[in-house]
Specification:
The complex is a heterodimer of chains A (347) and B (608). By secondary structure, chain A is of the alpha+beta class. Helix content of chain A is 37%, strand content 23%. Chain A contains 13 helices and 13 strands. The radius of gyration of chain A is 23 Å and the shape is globular. In chain B, strands 5-12-11-7-8-9-10-6 form an 8-stranded mixed sheet, covered by helices on one side. Chain B is globular and about 80 Å long. Classes of the chains: A alpha+beta (347), B alpha+beta (608).
């Protein structure tokens, strides 16, 4: 049984087994987008885990006591499953394959371990609580624990309630993404359009010092750039005071939140070259997926462009404001409109 | 446009503008209908008037009022009586202290608007569908009109009529010929203005529509990209400059470039060239390009003192001097047309590709329409404002010379101090007394009037006109004000809230880049010679005729104009930062001050 697969070998269709996040990263890699290396853990590993440890029975009986709409029961079921699952050993075959895949990464680096919900619907994933993320994991032991912790998150009270709402049709299973950590000097989010105005010719970039959680979590006011895809001009730029940043904990596991030193606080954290590299990558990603994308990215410390730019995640832009288009009007009738002689509005 | 009471307006009442000291009686220079007259105070005071500094930056000489009347007759004619633009009739003007204020006449009755829509759609549709053909014919008729005004004889008054009066059936007498020639001169001017506006409204309209369409679908698109997609590569107006660059090359190749020393006058350069065969050969080359390319005006042609390069080759020669220097320093002075064309097509293609299919269809069609009308929008200036008008003013000068010869004026140029109807009166008296042999009173009547008016114009030039008068409008809806003058609701609000002397001016970001430099305020073209390498040019508006000096300035700031204005177009070509339409740069900035021009954000800061 294949429990893991290198990210570079995944394509969109593999979302069914390895989850949307892993499949998406594989897809990015296939398009030549620089993504930190890693591997995906398939749903098969989870299934082997619950089967071999006999947890499947425990889970089924706990869930049977949590009918639709009963919040307290869902909470109790969650607690029972969590307790049973938390210290259950991983099947030897799974453990071995995780170790092999991990050691195949160059230099046994610190990794990020994240849940990767099956299928493509990230909307469902949000509700199902499959958003776990464990950063700066080092070594096989920590890795195995983190993978299991991701699995446990399938049974948060909210996830249980959500699946109960769906009538229990949905099989509880998930993939896990294991990816090399990036020690980001600068990181942020960018959209392949201006999400505020809807302008498709712009890349909107938010950027701040350190790891991306500061921007994603809204803990800092990032620098804000609007860059033309067509000419690369920076059309608007707002440099904000960036008070805090996250950096890897020098002591080992995890991250540290700290104040940004005064001399960097009000300095733009991206220069023209950095923006140009981002806009170029945004264009490639947008072309690859054919829809507007919301992209997490980082510039790795100690490297220089273009090698320093890494894409961590790309999702379709969902809540895009679209004006009702001005359709089916000939150029001349539009011009007549300029002179106040538009054809009747109600037509 | 709304008509609030005058007390609520941010702008002064036109009836409460003080006459500058020593300028009492300025009104007598102008026709009665050009003034803010007490008898229509109730209407005029409740209208919104803005200073047309774009066309009339300095006080109007009496004769030049023809260049207000005739264009506004023509624009009103086409807009209101021919195309019947639904919400707008024509544009009224008034003169205050010598300066021209204008105000559109809206159509507010919905029934009337509906009636006009039908006319407009049919007629504008016809013009757009047949544009190329109409424009080709237009050029032919303009060239014929230019030939007519050039060749129109202004007969002298002989001691005795020649025998031809007896021998030729259609030969008229001199008095009749002279009066007819004057009348024809005025009518030729009217015809030019008629032609001028025949295509202009629709041309601007097409461009503005494309621009609005881009902004609706690509809300963050920089204005200059819109202009770049439309701008003509081979527009006629760039030819004069191209010819001068070519002449600079010829001068270097034939080894006579040493004559082109900075600071020398054209006469001094010519004198040196005359001394060698190679120099003479160069002068022959120059002669070859003069017609038509020396018909560029030295400024926007709405004042009589803007001659052509024929009349004053200073700009042309200064430009050649600059090109010679640049070429000798190894700089590229060629206009990179192939590159500009590639960039223009690349922008259009990339922006088009960003739009969904249906939007892209309208985008492509509108861009096509804009590109179709664009040559006219640019080139009409060469035909009308420069080529025709410089010759027309010279024709008027011939009448001035005649009046001067007969003692009615002290100098030929004084003719421009009389209104066109006053010139007609003077000519009437001249032919009358010439015919009767009696004593004319004209020589005693006109010279003191001329002297006083010259004095008035000089004093009025020191007065700073407010940007607007009368009622503050709630919104500007007049398509012409918006399209031709860039006077939008937002601009009016900025005027209304403008804090004097803030050291910071805003306008349209017309050409990107940031530079700092010494300001050179140039109100009219005669001051162009003072512009030095590296200056920041601050002017009311520039015309293509100024383009040659753009190769030596660092940045450009104008009072009036949008991103499609000539200053903007030329600056983008030269890669100079430009902020246009600041409203008051020439009033707030003084020559010698250090300013920072940010052509990317449209901000001009006075630093010291």
């Amino acid at each position: 049984m294949e429990f893991t697969r290198p990210l570079a070998e995944l394509r969109s269709a593999d979302a069914v087994e390895f989850g949307g996040k892993s499949a998406n990263l594989g897809d990015l890699l296939s398009a030549g987008i620089p993504v930190p290396g890693g591997f995906a853990v398939g749903a098969g590993a989870f299934r082997a885990f619950v089967a071999e440890t006999g947890l499947d029975g425990t889970i089924a009986s706990a869930l049977s006591r949590a009918p639709k709409g009963d919040v307290e029961a869902a909470s109790a079921a969650s607690k029972a499953i969590d307790e049973a699952m938390r210290f259950a050993p991983l099947p030897e075959a799974v453990r071995e394959e995780l170790a092999r895949s991990y050691e195949a990464l160059e230099g046994s680096p610190p990794v990020a371990v994240r849940s990767s919900a099956l299928g493509e619907d990230s909307h469902d994933a949000t509700f199902a609580g499959q958003q776990e993320s464990f950063l700066w994991i080092r070594g096989v032991e920590q890795l195995c624990d983190a993978v299991r912790d991701c699995w446990v998150s399938l049974y948060t009270p909210r996830a249980i309630a959500y699946r109960a709402e769906l009538g229990g049709r949905e099989e509880a299973a998930m993939g896990v993404t294991v990816q090399e950590m990036v020690d980001a000097e600068v990181s942020g989010v960018m959209f392949t359009c201006n999400p505020v105005s809807g302008d498709p010719s712009m890349v909107a970039v938010n950027a701040s010092w350190g790891l991306g959680i500061a921007v994603v979590g809204g803990e800092t006011t990032p620098d804000d750039f609007l860059v033309s895809k067509v000419t690369g001009e920076v059309v608007r730029q707002t440099v904000n005071a960036k008070e805090i940043e996250y950096v890897p904990d020098p002591a080992g596991r995890g991250t540290v939140r700290r104040e940004v030193p005064a001399e960097r606080r009000e300095r733009a954290c991206l220069d023209e070259a950095g923006l140009a590299a981002l806009v170029e990558a945004a264009g490639r990603i947008e072309r690859h997926f054919g829809t507007h994308q919301d992209i997490e990215w980082a510039l790795a410390r100690g490297r220089s462009l273009p090698e320093s730019l890494l894409v961590l995640q790309s999702r379709p832009v969902t809540a895009m404001k679209t004006d009702p288009p001005r359709l089916s009007q000939s150029a001349i009738s539009l011009v007549l409109g300029t002179f106040g002689a538009a054809p009747r509005k109600d037509s | 446009m709304a008509a609030p009471t005058k007390t609520s307006s941010a702008f002064p009442s036109p009836y409460e503008i003080a006459t500058p000291p020593g300028c009492e009686g300025w009104e007598e220079m102008y026709p009665y209908y050009t003034l803010f007259d007490e008898r229509r105070r109730e209407t005029d005071e409740n209208r919104f008037w803005f200073w047309n500094s774009m066309h009339f930056p300095v006080p109007m000489p009496a004769f030049d009022v023809h260049c207000i009347d005739s264009p506004y007759q023509a624009v009103g004619e086409w807009q209101n009586r021919f195309f019947a633009v639904p919400p707008a009739m024509g544009i009224d003007y008034r003169i205050v202290n010598g300066y021209v204020y204008i105000s559109g006449n809206p159509v507010t009755d919905p029934e009337k608007i509906g009636e006009r829509v039908e006319y407009f759609q049919r007629r504008a549709g016809y013009y757009f569908e047949n544009w190329e053909e109409i424009y080709a014919k237009w050029k032919t008729k303009m060239e014929a009109l230019i030939a007519e005004i050039t060749e129109l004889p202004v007969p002298d008054l002989p001691e005795y009529e020649p025998d031809e009066v007896m021998l030729e059936d259609d030969r008229q007498t001199a008095f009749y010929e002279l009066l007819s020639a004057y009348d024809r001169t005025l009518r030729c001017g009217d015809l030019m203005w008629q032609h001028h506006f025949e295509l202009l409204l629709l041309g601007y309209g097409a461009y503005v529509t494309f621009s609005d369409f881009c902004k609706a679908n690509l809300p963050d698109i920089p204005d200059q990209h819109i202009a770049q997609m439309v701008a003509g590569i081979d527009v006629l107006l760039f030819r004069p400059s191209a010819e001068l660059r070519q002449l600079a090359k010829v001068a270097i190749d034939s080894g006579v470039d040493g004559a082109f020393v900075e600071g020398r006058s054209p006469a001094e350069i010519d004198a040196e060239l005359e001394q060698s065969d190679a120099g003479k050969a160069w002068l022959e080359e120059l002669e070859k390009i003069k017609d038509p390319w020396f018909n560029m005006a030295t400024g926007d042609g709405l004042y009589h003192y803007y001659g052509s390069w024929y009349d004053d080759p200073t700009i042309a020669y200064a430009s050649i001097v600059g090109h010679v220097r640049a070429l000798n320093e190894g700089e590229e002075v060629e206009r990179p047309t192939a590159e500009l064309e590639r960039e223009r097509d690349r922008l259009a293609e990339e922006y088009g590709a960003l739009l969904d299919e249906e939007t892209r269809g309208a985008f492509t069609e509108l861009l096509g329409l804009s590109r179709m009308v664009f040559p006219y929008v640019e080139e009409h200036k060469f035909y009308c404002d420069y080529w025709f008008l410089t010759r027309w003013w010279n024709k008027v000068r011939e009448f001035g010379a005649l009046l001067a010869k007969h003692g009615f004026l002290e100098d030929t140029e004084d003719v421009f101090q009389l209104g066109r109807h006053e010139v007609a009166q003077a000519l009437d008296e001249l032919v009358l007394t010439w015919a009767t042999g009696g004593e004319p009173i004209g020589p005693k009547h006109w010279p003191p009037i001329v002297a006083r008016r010259k004095e008035l114009l000089e004093k009025l030039a020191d007065w700073t006109p407010p940007p607007a008068l009368g009622a503050t409008p709630e919104a500007i809806t007049d398509p012409m004000s918006i399209m031709l003058w860039g006077v939008t609701t937002q601009r009016v609000q900025e005027w209304a809230s403008a804090e004097e002397g803030g050291g910071r001016l805003t306008g349209a970001a017309a050409s990107p880049g940031v530079v700092e430099g010494k300001a050179r305020v140039v109100i009219d073209v005669e001051q162009i010679a003072a512009v030095r390498e590296g200056d920041v040019l601050v002017c009311p508006i520039t015309s293509p005729a100024w383009a040659p000096i753009f190769s030596s300035v660092k940045a450009v700031v104008t009072d009036i104009g949008g991103v499609m204005s000539h200053a903007a177009i030329v600056c983008r070509e030269y890669g100079l930062p430009a902020v246009v339409g600041t409203g008051r740069a020439t009033a707030e900035i003084q020559t010698g001050q250090t300013v920072r021009v940010d052509g990317s954000t449209g901000v001009v800061t006075i630093l010291e």
